[in-house]
Amino acid sequence: MSGVVQTAGIPAATGLRSNRVRAILRSPSAMIGVIVTALLIIVALLALVGLTPYDPAAQDPAARLMPPSAAHWFGTDQFGRDMFSRVAAGVANSTVIAVVAVAISALVGTAAGLVAGFYRGVSDTVIGGVTNVLFAFPPLLLALSLASVFERNWLTVAIAIAIVYVPIFVRVTRGPVLSLREIEFVRAATSTGMRRSRIMVTHVLPNITSIIIVQVTLSLSWAVLTEASLSFLGLGTPPPAPSLGSMIYDARTLLYVAPWTMIAPGTVLVLLIVGLNLLGDGLRDTLDPRNRGTR
């Protein structure tokens, strides 16, 4: 009566988890995504704890526009700041904002999708209407509008990005919930008088967790790109905090004089987005129930 996850028992659930882990390890895209993302996260953690070679904000006019060398792995910018330290701090800032934004959107969107799909009726109409309104705006335009309204700091940027991605989690959650609410174990739980809120949490939510995990991973890459786009346009992470998007913007006029000032943050941004996308694709192939019959 408690669904696929609970009726399988502890040994079966453990076996299912181990099978999923093996499937992920066998997925080339997932493994490449894990390796690339892990390396960049390690670099970001070094920046967060202050273990970069130089202070990302420290200026050294005597070392301005130096090419990559043993002293400055990614070279220096027009103010003599170490590019490797700034790129590491930029990855850290972008990752923190993306994680906070996706966490907010996943919590709000999943809860709204559960309510809309399970209760239907007025709640489904209202939540669906709000979702359709948000979907009517291009994501970047909506994020730009929201970011320009609030005071500019990293949290408001994260909230602006989160609002953009809430409708995606609503749609991703609502569809499977509509199917699960008609399955026998959910109907049986309802017939015993169990509260619907408890049914959603204990029976429905565990059966859509894998879908949410996949969507979280994919949304992280888009959130990183959105934050970089906002910073490039001057509405993202406020200075002096480094951001990959703002570094790319500042390097526009230096492209022919000091190309490393654009190549370094641009390459790292691409690697971060590609790594998260590959990880998300690999997780989708191994965790999404809709793909299990095709493997």
Q: Count the strands?
A: 0
Order of helices and strands: HHHHHHHHHHHHH
Summed up, the helix count is 13
Coarse morphology: elongated
Rounded mean pLDDT is: 83
Regions with little confidence, pLDDT below 50 for 5+ residues: 1-13
Question: Taking Cα atoms only, what radius of gyration do you get, to the nearest Å?
Answer: 22 Å
Percent of residues in beta strands? under 5%
Helix content: over 70%
Structural class: mainly alpha
Report on the biggest sheet.
none
Q: N- to C-terminal separation? A: 28 Å
Explain this structure:
With 295 residues, this protein is an all-alpha fold. The chain contains 13 helices and no strands. The chain has helices spanning 4-7, 9-26, 28-48, 83-119, 121-135, 139-149, 154-180, 184-191, 196-204, 209-232, 244-250, 260-287, 289-292. Helix 10 runs parallel beside helix 11 (244-250). The longest helix is centred in the middle third of the chain and has 37 residues, at 83-119. It is elongated.
Short description:
72% of the residues lie in helices and 0% in strands. The chain has helices at residues 4-7, 9-26, 28-48, 83-119, 121-135, 139-149, 154-180, 184-191, 196-204, 209-232, 244-250, 260-287, 289-292.
